[in-house]
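Homework-ish question, so no full write-ups if that breaks the rules, but can someone show me the predicted structure for this set?
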Amino acid sequence: MAEAVFPSFPTREEVDFVIVGSGAAGGVMAKELSTAGHSVVLLEQGPHLKAADFHHDEWGYDHNLELTWGRSQGYPQTFRKFESDVAEEREMVCGYAHNVGGSSMHYSGNFWRFRPIDFVEASVRGPIAGTNFSDWPITYSDLEPYYTKVDWEVGVSGLQGPWDPPRTREYPCPPMPIKGSDVLLERAAKAMGLNPYPAPVAILSQPHNGRPGCIHCGFCNGYGCEVNAKSSSLVTVIPVALATGNCELRTHCTVHRVNTNEQGRATEVVYWDADGVEQAQRAKAVVLCANGSETPRLLLMSESAQHPDGLANSSGMVGKNLMFNGYSTVMGLFDEPVNAYKSVPATRVVHDFYELDPSLGFYGGGGIDGRHPSRGAPMGFALTAAPAFGTPTWGSEFKADLAYQFSHVAAFDGHTTSLPLSTNNITLDPTVKDKFGRPAIRTTYMDHPDDIETMRWFYEKTVEMMEVAGASNIVGHYERDGQEGNVHLLGTCRMGNDPDSSVVDAMNRAHDVPNLFMCDGSSLVTSGRGQPTMTIMALAFRAGELISQAARRNEI
Amino acid sequence: MDSATVAKGSFLALSLPVILSACQRSQQALEQGAGFRVFEADEAADLTAIAARIIPTDDTPGATEAGVIYFLDTIFAEARRASQLALLREGLGALRGQLTTGGRPIHELTEAQQDQLLRDNEQTPFFATMRYLTIAGTFSLPRYGGNRDKVGYQLIGYEDRGAWSAPYGFYDADYAERGE
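A: Not a homework solution, just the prediction itself:
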């Protein structure tokens, strides 16, 4: 490929699109719009890291938060369970990586598609009092072609499961080799009459689209891939966007406002550049792909006389319906070396409990996979294993335990639903600011009782599976008092046909602002079963195509 | 199952408590035997002794061989950790002042006496910090001054190869052999 000519657009001249955020959605959006011939400025607050920059650096990433940033870097967040509480300052609540590629750089790459039921569950199952549980304005069939685009353009490895939704094309890469932790999961599941099958992952099992297959180093979750085998937007769609010559990537740009004119149209995106100088990029249209916490914050910060409650917020739904997905984990020790720290996080899933029986008396569902309990990371395991197992936490016995536990442990994790609630939300903290003076992201979150019951159900089911698998020292955890942070940031600018109860329409256009689009985790109407990024990317492929078509028809 | 002994597992590991903040420094400047940048000799001796009770040297190497003291000296050399260093010194001073030491430096106590002293102080922030940092210094990348000769990796059976192919362990090898 010839060396691409990177454009440099003047800020005071309109480009076709400014995209805020270069993560899972923003990268796809940049690729779709730039390959369609539109001029694009892609703003990213972090650096453009490459494979050579990534290391198995627990101290740097997990302790010092060099990829995710937090209060230590000048980005505090605040948290409270209830709106009546005063939020307290935290190192991090909503976790996401700050770099080109966003959190797709450091994710696990578990790429479960949503299923047809996820889009129509409210009407199939009926409303749930006190929640905003709703159908999507689109169906699985609408999204299926774009799931397939993700499979092939981003790169997914897998094998069609026993009751997976229909697909129009096979996976481009075969599933990952099974790990010992998933042999234990699969054997237990089969003994219980369940149907485990290979986990779909956005990690290449063999070369695809010019990228190499995985070397199974084990550092996926929380780390950048050192060989470009993980299918992040960083190494898939963003290089395609940049190669068009239509897309300018600007890193270290901190956005703080979207300006609008008297006609109610977005006109420019205001940001501090890498030198801290305030800039404003003019554009015909603006696409926010900043994630489910940053996108609503930016809209709320963009309030004006015309938009007193924040931009695109006539529904009052901006920031509301935050969904984290629930989580449970159970670990146990086995007689022989499992070595679950090697290779990708999960290679088998159990989806027999995608929809729990309504007769249980609560709503919920999810999936189960096998893993290493500390993502395979030595320091994280050494810090947390002994307190978890209830074994000595220091001294010779601690040391001897660790020598056995690290290689002989396996975990079975549950990934579950969250209900959308008005009371779970992102707002602007009234007092705490980040280092740029932007109001800190304030998270108010208490899992719905059904969500906690669902986590408990999966916890108990995985304890049973561990017992069937023959584990000893079985211990586990779920957030019985409610989660206080997560990396799944969903629902805060929900999609819908009704402008009174949703923020964007079925093509991700703001109901209130004709040339403003939001497309990221915030668009999700329901939470899925705990692996949202596949759907976020598919939505971005779909929205990118529809937005480009609308632009060509002068309908933006 | 005791709910108090919970395993937060992978999510907990993703949100490890942050006691201290960032630091990077090459190991080259910290050759064995070089002087300390931060610690006085007696402080280093006491901290080394404490780390050695948390991950002792027995039939295999421990915190001492991993060079945990050099990890500590590296991370506390950053100016922005000055207040945390002061807290660490305050905690060490409080430990030194306890009657059980009999006025002797901690590193001159017997191992049994050191263990008793630490057990008596197990619930203090100082001990929690020393446990955290001893583990961090044993298992983090050697570039931070600890985990010398990859002592930590060897201790837990982590093969530091960075790339593997299946089978990875006993069960998947068995699975393949049985043709499951």
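Now go work out the reasoning yourself. Hint: Chain B has nine helices and no strands.
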